[in-house]
Fold Glutamyl-tRNA(Gln) amidotransferase subunit A, mitochondrial.
Amino acid sequence: MASPSPASLALIKRAEICLQNIAQRNNTLKTFITLKPADQIRNEVRQLAPLNSSGHGLQGRVISLKDNFCTTDMPTTCASKVLKDYMSPFESTAGRLLRNAGAVVAGKVNMDEFAMGSNNNHTYFGTALNPLFPDTEASAGGSSGGSAASVAADMCDVSLGTDTGGSVRLPGAYCGVFGFKPSYGMISRHGVIAYAQSLDTVGIVAKNVPLIETTFDVLNQYDEADPTSISPVVRQKIANMDQKDVAKDKLRIGIMKEAIIDLSPEVREAWINALDYLQSLGHEVSVVSVPSLKHSLPAYFIISPAEASSNLARYDGVRYGFRADVDRDETGNLYAPTRTAAFGKEVQRRILLGTYNLSAGAYGNHFEKAQKVRRIILDEFNDIFATPNVLYDTPGCPSGVDVLIHPTSRTTAPTHEEIKQNTNVTDSYINDVLTVSANLAGLPAISAPWGKGQDTVGIQVYSQFGNDKLILDVAKLLDQAPINK
Ligand code: GLN
């Protein structure tokens, strides 16, 4: 074998740093649910890194996968007791593509059970903690808390998570890393265990935008195994779209009036500073309105549990994984003992909520209305963006905005003590108010860190369907601000 280039040696050295961080911090932070043996990771990197003479690409890079990506060499638990020993007979397309690109999967990372939650505290394997706060037990965010923590703690370079209502962006914001949710259907969901399939998106977490781009380049392709994968025809339409060049063109940045909500002072200040900075580069900021945004949270919390209740019906103790010792409950029900013992409280709550909203009595008043609200929100976004929506052949608004910018969350990472004090369940749902609309409308969105360390605030950039490249470019601009140097 030819002797490794300096770039390949740097990859091997980098992998050792990741392994060291895993060894030192994983037990406390509870980042990984399943970890490959260190020697196996080391050997894989040593074999692959020398093939990457440039240091670019994913060859020889250590990555992690959220534990809802099916793998054949490790269990896929969804952080649930019901799947605690589940071995999938097949692998997710996304995981396979990354492995084929030479990435080395170190293991499967912690998450909220079946991706339901915002603080990675609803997990069978113990709450994942935020590595930025070694002295307090702070939220890593959820549901992809392990993904963001694994990157923030330099246990790996890239992590795949899923984002149904903000689950890649919120942990990204709390842990001070980039969390990117592409347009719906860009990355295959084949082999990714569903929470709410009309909203679920594979997302990418990394410490810098170029790594996100490299990963997205590998994953951004049609997959016939995923019926919701964006077709080659639509992909071509996207490729033909006029794209702004952020280095030369003046961007029109919108701030949604409805996103001006009760924010913590540091979050508000970061938002203002980020906008000031972009203005100082010559971009233009204006206030726009998406009047139905205020209905996005109720719509999301009707649609997502409804889909979840149907998706999770398959975990009945007969076909998959865990089965309770008691065969039937006192009414003769076969499934109840298993489902009661195997699902955590939050998952049970959402199954009940979703089943209720799909019931004959509630369907028209709840589920159908939520679907209508979803469509109205989409129409309102289409009215304010300059770019047409290629999925619906809308004309685009000539005086419209290119991107929307607002914070990812109302506060920085709360401590678990604070989270426990808040016993009102719906209160904990309110935090998703700034993220769910992108999922309802299928839009690309990224949370970019603003500031350093514990003071980092997540600034969110999103745009019209298909404008994934544009928001990545804007995230790069934000990253170049003096405060992030
Ligand atoms: N926090 C949201 C929820 O609990 C989002 C979850 C997600 O994106 N997977 O549903």
